Structure prediction request, 334 residues.
Amino acid sequence: MLKYIIPLLLFIIMAVFLALGLNLKPNEIPSPFINKPAPIFSAPKLNAPEEKLSPADLKGKVWLFNVWASWCVSCRAEHPVLNELAKQNAVVIVGLNYKDEPNDAKTWLDTLGNPYNVSIMDQDGRIGIDYGVYGVPETFVIDKKGLIRYKHTGPVTAEDVQQTLLPLIAKLQAEP
Amino acid sequence: MKRLLFIFMLMMSGSSYAVDTHQLSDPKQQESYEILTKELRCLVCQNQTIADSNAELAGDLRRQVYEMLQQGKSKQEIIQFMTDRYGDFVLYKPPFQGKTSVLWIAPVVFLLLGLIMVFFVIRRKKAAANLHSQAGDLEMDAEKQKKIRSLLEKGDPS
Prediction:
């Protein structure tokens, strides 16, 4: 009897591990930034390169920091969702135009619509490294004190907005 | 067969060339550069180090390592810089801590379990063999020989 139970038990243990493995998302690397201050930068604005933006300018506001690029295919899929979100005026949306050509980026916004209150340029990817960006698009939610509260890797979908982003934004707006 | 072997060997030959290399004037720093780029994971391609990968991000991270070494930063400082931004995942060799202890201990545990099992199986087989040879195998042999002889003499009746 034992002869049959032991292999069965081993099989069950293995099956459980494999089942757990199926549900893991190895592409989603936990961000070490949650509840840490948003890294400092001072970067030129896409539409006015002589002006610079830094996170300090956004103190007291809840803002989304969305990493995008005109060469990024998933950003194209995400774009209509951001346009919709921008219409609701629930949150300041700042774009990080990551490793892109300014002219390509401007054309992209002109043709597809511009959901960003402001976009800044990161042509050599240094701000991206400071934010631990490894897959565009990525979206950070930053609270009034300048702490990163949430990070989303990959394109934001309409469900993500409804189920995660909007409730979180409402909660953060209510914070002092 | 030869062709299969050839294909197999082709599959086993990893790409060992570096994609682009930054050259540091100080050989000691150059050594650190090579060690570091082989310890840091390319986060886009996940199973490649930043030394092996030609993804854009890997190139940026190599540049970052290169610049920090030029500024005289230590290996420890660079690793800290990377884990602050990308988490422990960026390290090919995960640090030993609560969350990763299973990762480090499991192989040893499995090896020990295997050895224990082999030990018991061998012992049981040995005991069985001993029992067998003691239980009058000679008698059996005599009987068998008799049968063989009779078969040889009379031929197989069947």
Observations:
- Residues 67 and 96 of chain A are 5 Å apart (CA to CA).
